[in-house]
């Protein structure tokens, strides 16, 4: 077996490349942006709150003063916000990568809906990203770029089939989260199949961060400020946890490594933690019938079919 030369702490130069990351104001999204900016990439940081976005951008610039970092308001739970942000992002140059990271990790106890009348967790974690990826497909194609969907270990432990994706019946916070991650992962693989079939030069990849916790992550004012209790509890689980910085490694590698192939699933080498490696995704997320059903549901719910023909014709300006 060939030695893996990838060093997540010393990325190859990304000067001249442009990446958009959803959910950039904290956690995995922030540390992904930090790593991309440190390698010289132009980074578009997105989030719902303009003050938190400004704080996150300044935190990146403090560590990388010469970084090319811009901010863009984007709420993935709101399809109008998705379309507006996409219009701004694609109106410039091509896009080398799209990291579909934003999401609700701790769902509300009771089922909530968005202004578009979709269940909040599914709308935020799935529908918004499906619509955004489609809206930005021509920009990605013009740069022969890639999209990375963020999965979760939970899909291997509880393999809920999202027959009722928006949980109109039987809502629980945990089920809402796991179903959203089953859908996210399945859509990532289905996107790769469809992009290949349509001859669109964009890769679709899935990555998961393992078990990454705030309590094992360095403190950054306004970004990561865990309590002493969180630090203590998370450090008790040190054997099976890692920092958010390390959790971002598989996401960033899936987004930037030239050797990555469409349809791959990246995660920590030891499942919960470790260097980024190609892993095996859970069976349910690889089921093409489930994926096709979810794809059709999302296309109908968002009213946003993907523009394959326009993407094929795209050229970098």
From TrEMBL:
SUPFAM superfamilies xref list: NAD(P)-binding Rossmann-fold domains
Family designation: Belongs to the short-chain dehydrogenases/reductases (SDR) family.
InterPro entries linked to this entry: NAD(P)-bd_dom_sf (IPR036291), SDR_fam (IPR002347)
Protein name as it appears in the record: SDR family NAD(P)-dependent oxidoreductase
Residue spans crossing the bilayer: none
Pfam families attached to this UniProt entry: adh_short (PF00106)
Keyword Transport: no
GO molecular-function term, one example from the UniProt record: oxidoreductase activity
Keywords on record: Oxidoreductase
